[in-house]
Write a structure and sequence with these properties.
binds magnesium ion; binds adenosine-5'-diphosphate; six-stranded mixed sheet; 7 helices; 35% helix; four-stranded antiparallel sheet
């Protein structure tokens, strides 16, 4: 199994208040499979994705990607695992404004020592970004920016892509186009995909679906 999430609890403490967001989340995802994560706003979807990406640590429980402990307490350990195993796509694109499209796509793969020129060329061609490589993110449409973010997420050939409402900022036609591209390219590359979405139509396009409710998988 590629992703193994076991009994993950997460609470946020501020002052005397403690909010328990995740209360024993357990699920697995096989290599190359796709899974849609649904749930009301505030149900903890982004929290769960952040934990799987190693951007934060659970209060208790364990998360493994390819047998590596993504819930490791040390930041540097998690960052190294994230760079080599996981690609992340956010709703707000999160491209680096001072870098060209080409540099945005390459940057993290280079940091991880996993940059492959031939693969990046194939990827940008496949994602339809070839004529935009020298441009800066601000001159691109939302759909084009999200396509850059998809290419960036796949540049280091991760085993798992995490996408947090990747089409939430796009109009419906563009959203469908970006979703189709994300699904077809993760399928072709046999990359597992865990995607948060509000749309049951979009969720149904993925192999499996699950819902977070009251801090647990419903
Ligand atoms: P979703 O993505 O499903 O909308 P989130 O994971 O963003 O939900 O948030 C779940 C709950 O955790 C919300 O009540 C939110 O306010 C709270 N929360 C999220 N991140 C933090 C944080 N860094 N500090 C404190 N509370 C947080
Ligand atoms: Mg969210």
């Amino acid at each position: 199994m590629l992703l193994n999430v076991q009994e993950v609890w997460k609470s946020y403490v501020s002052g005397a208040d403690e909010a328990e967001v995740l209360r024993g989340v357990t699920f697995t995802l096989e290599a190359g499979h796709s899974l849609a994560l649904m749930g009301e706003s505030g149900s903890g979807k982004s929290t769960l994705l952040h934990l799987i990406a190693g951007l934060d640590v659970p209060s208790s429980g364990s998360i493994e990607v390819k047998g590596c402990v993504m819930s490791h307490p040390r930041d540097t350990e998690r960052a190294a695992l994230r760079r080599s195993l996981v690609g992340v796509i956010f709703q707000q694109f999160n491209l680096i404004p001072s870098l060209t499209v080409a540099a945005n796509i390459r940057f993290q793969a280079q940091l991880a020592g996993r940059f492959d020129e031939k693969w990046c060329a194939e990827l940008t061609e496949r994602i339809g970004l070839k004529e935009h490589l020298g441009k800066y993110p601000e001159s691109l449409s939302g759909g084009q920016q999200q396509r850059v973010a998809i290419a960036r997420a796949l540049a280091a050939k991760p085993a798992l892509v995490l996408a947090d409402e990747p089409t939430g900022n796009l109009d419906e036609a563009t959203a469908q186009n970006v979703l189709d591209l994300l699904l077809s390219i993760t399928r072709e590359t046999e990359t597992a995909l865990l995607m948060v979405t509000h749309s049951s139509k979009h969720a149904e396009a993925l192999g499996q679906q699950m819902t977070l409710r009251n801090g647990q998988i419903a």
